[in-house]
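Running log. JK asked me to keep both predictions on one page so they can be read side by side. First protein, sequence followed by its tokens:
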Amino acid sequence: MAWLAAAISALTFVYLFVALIRPEWF
């Protein structure tokens, strides 16, 4: 289950990073 938590954390980090760089996508 640790891999699932790591995947969710990575996706959340990428989502926030993209939201900061490309806010017009949202």
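And the second, directly underneath as requested:
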Amino acid sequence: MKIGWLQIIMAVIYMGILIGVGLYMSRKVKSSDDFWIGGRQVGPVATALSYGAAYVSTVAIIGDPPMYYNYGLGYAAFEIMISVFFCCILIFIVFAPKMRALSERLNVVSLSGFLAIRYKSNRFRLLCGTLVSVMMVPYAISAMKGIADAMHAIVGIPYAMGVVVIAVVSFCYLVTAGYWGVSTTDIIQGITIAVSCLLVAVIVITKSGGVTEAVTYMGSVSPSHIQPSSGLTFAQLFSWAGVWALIAFGQPQLVTKFMGLRDSRTVGTVIRVAVVWEIIFMVSIAMIGAAAFKLFGAVPFDNVDAIVPTLVAEHTNAVVSGIFLCGILAAGLSTTVALVLTSSGAVTKDIYEDYYCARSNAKQDSGKSVRISRFATGIILVVVVIGSIYPPDFIWSLSTMSAGVMGAAFTAPLVLGLYWKRATRQGCMAGIIGGSAVSIIWYFAGLTSVVHSFVPGTAVSFLLMVLVSLCTPRMEEEHLDVFFEPGCSKNKIQAAIAAGSK
């Protein structure tokens, strides 16, 4: 795609706005709670858009329309319904109210911290923190690589330069402002993603003769493209769309956003905003795929990732393509910084402060804690940049495995920990280790062509956690009251926090 100075200037202005907002929000960072979860003062709109922007990456904008191009609108409809229900409704209902309330009650800012107190062992901070920090890095590398690849395809700048540009922008608002910078800029990012995709969708679908014309043409060329299942088996539909909706339940970078919510009573507003945003985004990219099918005459592409850039280059003007470029930057940046922040939080907060310092009785003042948090975040970002400049050939596959491992490790301990009193420390440990191990083995055994490694890993995690919990002593009722009784006494809460620090 040939991009002129106008598009480049628009992208530079956009990134400058993000940097300015991040530097401004850095003034709010006075403590580690401010840095990691925005001091639990993030509003419902910011939370919803931050969640959506972190969930959607450049891969979704560039990679999903070709899926609809190849398989049709039946697959698109299935993915939209699954994504909206599981990722924008059910996950908020299951996690948001409880995680927000318990995170404040227990004074925790991470998934690892919650599990350590729920299951009365500080070892979960070390285990989960290590798992998160390691698995997030390839995930973040793939996200940054996706932005740099898109910038190279659209703007034509060298790949390595694209990585450096993204790193500088990320550094300016992530390292300085932490989650305050992320959540605030994600309002801009979320709006930019939705508007850019909707704008392109309206233009290209109009040029294809309208929705009816595009769908009619698609059905005449390939009848399966407009069938409810797109001619795919349920196993295929579930593996491609269902897994990525369910996998969100075990992703720390998404679940921890509920901890920063200003008030658990605003969850309804969060859900409504998230649903509207997700529908606008998903329907837009589905229409882009349908329009591409019509405008390109259903011609197969050797490189499917070229479909969207080519469509925008040939059928939109300079202003629209510039806005679309900003949308791609928004999707990639929001995902990258969410992953880097979560990884650095696992190293700094979980492993160093709450595990190492707790065991050595070393005290941390707020100022030093913030400085360490910023330093660790910067180091993780440098590691991601180096990995992005020199990515292994299998980075996309490795990032998919990383998401699967985290989903398999954490979904059962979180869900059962919140809703099942009988869950025990031994059961949780078995679930985390067994689920992640099965997911990794499944991946390296080459069985992902059968089903995503998240599926067997999560199934084993739930099974082991239930069986081992039933075979081990029940946790004390006084401890469980902290998690299941709204009016729990302060003494019980302090006792639970102390037990989770041993």
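Observation for JK regarding the second prediction: The chain has two domains: 3-389, 391-470.
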